[in-house]
Design goal:
The protein has eleven helices and twelve strands. With 305 residues, the chain is an alpha/beta fold. Strands 7-8-9-10-11-12 form a six-stranded mixed β-sheet, sandwiched between helices. It has a four-stranded mixed β-sheet with strand order 2-1-5-6. Strands 3-4 form a two-stranded parallel ribbon.
Length: 305
Amino acid sequence: MVELVQRDKQTCEVGFAGDTLNSLIYAKRWMPEVTCSFFSAIGTDHFSQQMLDFFKENHIETTAVFHSNSRNVGLYSIVTDENGERSFDYWRDQSAAKSMMCLHRTEQPDLGAVDMLYFSGIALGILSDGDKEDLFALLKHYRRQGALIAFDPNYRATMWSDTEHAQYWFDKAYREADIALPGVDDHFAVYGHRCSAQVVTHLLNMTCREFVLKAGKDGVYGYREGALVHHQPFKQAPKQVDSTAAGDSFAGVYLVNRLSGTGMAESIRAADAVAREVVQYRGAIVEQSVIADVKSAFSNDSQGV
């Protein structure tokens, strides 16, 4: 989507972002040797072309980015308060991304070998229920070929008819996922879960083999095969300017580390280090040099342990 970040009452900065796109870019910045492809749709408008250029500038493969002749890219605005907490307004009823499964059915592209597919509750929320089923069919197709499936609920209430609607599709996603990235806030909003233990029980009932629970001030918990593998205590960033992509950057760095064979504990620590750095900058995407510095410092700390 087009991202408008308000700088003052008269000025907005234009950028491009979205939860899964943000995660993809951070995965690529952490591990540049990994091929990262985006599955979505854009229009033929001016901002769509700029967005395509943005993908290429960030070394994101665009084979699976379709072009709609009748829809344009969506738009959202961010306003942050003095504590760096954000609020959003969206304009995406006619977003081209909502037609991505229809365009996929028409074009039937060859996406080649895929090691991992990552999708979110927002990706589900913008699709019709029929298109959601097609997305799951696509996930199952690649899973049969050996791909891992990763899911982050990332709940937005306005995208669902009610919480029961979201519960149905989130549970379906959890059952398909090899890796899940739930958050206690999302689970409280969707399921009414009031503590981490309730979220853990729910994920275990969904037979999810690996999940990382983001529990706010209680830190991050990593579970695999029903056992707690790692707890990362909460550590406040030196300053919090904008929390926009904290969860997205965490997801991207965690998943690319797991894909490369890094253990859960090390992957969580790396993802946490990046997320704490990202919130100190405005906007969803920070410079490559920032991530390179975090990776260097993280590697040095790990070698010193």
